[in-house]
Amino acid sequence: MLRPALLALFLLAGTAADAFGQDAPARAVAVTFDDLPAVAVPAAARCNQEALAAFTASLLGVVTEHAVPAAGFVVEANGACLGADGLAALLARWLDAGAELGNHTYSHPSLDAVTVAEYTADVVRGETVTRGLLEARGQRLRYFRHPMLRSGADAAKKAAVDAFLDERGYTVAPVTLDNSEWIYARAYANAL
Known about the structure:
Layout: H1 4-13, H2 16-20, E1 31-36, H3 49-65, E2 70-74, H4 83-96, E3 100-103, H5 116-125, H6 128-136, E4 143-144, H7 155-167, E5 171-172, H8 181-191
Parallel strand pairs: 1-2, 2-3, 4-5
Helix pairs in contact: 3-4, 4-6
């Protein structure tokens, strides 16, 4: 379930005009979720289609109830045990709820730990199910988020990956507030 503090942050943000009067510029806020489809679920549920569907429905229920602009970044390896059809069914729930889907690579490697060729191959592999699902709905895969927010340890590596992502039509999704909630979510999932 969405953490109350994160939800409060979004709901308080609203628009600048609401908070500061009519002369303020409009602002947009989106809440993003990395590592789909298995975001902070207990290990026993990671390959359980029914448990993941219930978790996804619970999370998206809060998102849709509050009309939160949302995007989920997919790590297709996290759903590989479900098969392509099972993964697509879970991801379709995000699209049905009006959320965007983006690529977070296939297996979540750190760009600092692999070569550019290994990283870009993992990006392409991470498009398989997500791209097909979007295209079947007349949409396109347009957002990318670097795992661990690592975009290159040096200028040359960063430039090479940026050029690759640009060639594939990606926009790198920025993170303006990262609360490291995954640390608590992992501890909670382990405790369950």
